[in-house]
Amino acid sequence: MTILHSIDELKNQFDTDVLNGKPDKDAFEEIKRKYTSRKGKIAELFAQLGSADPDIRPEAGKALNELKEYITIKLDGLSAVVSDNTEVTAADQLDLTLSGDPFPVGSIHPLTKVIEEITTIFTKLGFSLAYGPEIDTDFYNFEALNILKHHPARDMQDTFYVTDDVVLRTHTSNNQIHMMENHDPPIKVIAPGRVYRNEDVSVRSYCLFHQIEGLYVDKNVSMADLKGVLNYFAREFFGKNVKTRFRPSYFPFTEPSAEMDVSCYFCSQNGCNICKYTGWLEILGCGMVDPEVFKSVGYDPDIWSGYAFGMGIERMAMQRYGIEDIRMFYEGDIRFLRQF
Ligand SMILES: [Zn+2]
């Protein structure tokens, strides 16, 4: 059998293979490998060309090149058909016009929301944001705030002691001392943050919660300024129609001290569970900075005056969103968090 004959036969064989129904992808790859790979039929004939009869070698070479081209063109054409007819793969099913799978989107924690809302109101009034340490010394958390060693106020605050002298802060009021120590007056800051109390965990109390502390120090600051700012805040936060009242109270670091209530917006002061049928909701504690506090940071109380206030974020958030169990805030339950 001459090489020319072999070339003819290979062409017939190829035609038979290709025409034998529409090949699926695997069969097509097999045919391609059989004819055009480095050890395929064509390469095999090219290898034989060297030992062919010199008289027919040029003709055979030409015929073989033509066959190679023929097969290449046929296979190219076929590859398009094959990919159209092969099983549909996952990638083929991609419909780029469809909207994508939704990504799970988190929501802002209700406490964060309330903190942001409150700080926004105060920053509009010219307060700057400040942050202080959550682990602090007895001096900043108690002593400089006029809560001396055997002061009864220490009993009001069950404290986590790290060492004899270091505590997890029991209120954000430690920020007042840090601010005044590091800055000369006038000072106008709002300081949100976490605070800790060694309390039994229950529906109403938790071992940590959040406060926002406000401090304003300048010359001739009066209780009227304090009431003005807090009334403005209450209207912004609770709505234009909210009523406020100030009740005398006691804090070691303010004198005089007061607690501010707002009219219950759940019952319009008709009495409900949330206001315990008083028509009022207790919102915050406040007062004029005690001269003793000024002395502890080296401010002259004859020159400087100021007010401070602090409010619990959890209580505000519970009232605002009707949350009855304080523990919900810390459990990270997404069924709860998704609602905000
Ligand atoms: Zn009420």
How would you summarize this macromolecular structure in one to three sentences?
The protein is an alpha+beta fold.
The second-level CATH architecture of the largest domain is 2-Layer Sandwich
Enter the CATH topology name of the largest domain.
BirA Bifunctional Protein, domain 2
What is the general shape?
A: rod-shaped
Strand order of the largest sheet: 1-4-5-9-8-7-6
**End-to-end C-alpha gap:** 86 Å
Structural class: alpha+beta
Number of strands: 9
Ligand names: zinc ion
Averaged pLDDT, please? 88
Explain this structure.
The chain is α+β, with helices and mostly antiparallel strands and 340 residues long. It has 2 domains: 83 residues, no CATH class; 228 residues, Bira Bifunctional Protein, Domain 2 (BirA Bifunctional Protein, domain 2, 2-Layer Sandwich). 39% of the residues lie in helices and 19% in strands. It has 12 helices and 9 strands. The strands form 2 sheets. It has a 7-stranded mixed β-sheet, with helices on both faces. A two-stranded antiparallel sheet has the order 2-3. A hairpin with a 2-residue loop joins strand 6 and strand 7. Helix 1 packs antiparallel against helix 3, helix 1 packs parallel to helix 4 and helix 5 crosses helix 11. It is rod-shaped and about 125 Å long. It starts with a helix and ends with a helix. The structure holds zinc ion (ZN). The site of zinc ion has 7 residues, from loops.
Chain-wise SSE layout:
Layout: H1 3-19, H2 25-36, H3 41-49, H4 57-85, H5 110-124, E1 128-129, E2 135-137, H6 138-141, H7 153-156, E3 166-168, H8 174-182, E4 187-196, E5 208-218, H9 223-238, E6 244-251, E7 254-263, E8 280-289, H10 291-296, E9 305-312, H11 313-321, H12 334-337
Parallel strand pairs: 1-4
Antiparallel strand pairs: 2-3, 4-5, 5-9, 6-7, 7-8, 8-9
Bound molecules: zinc ion.
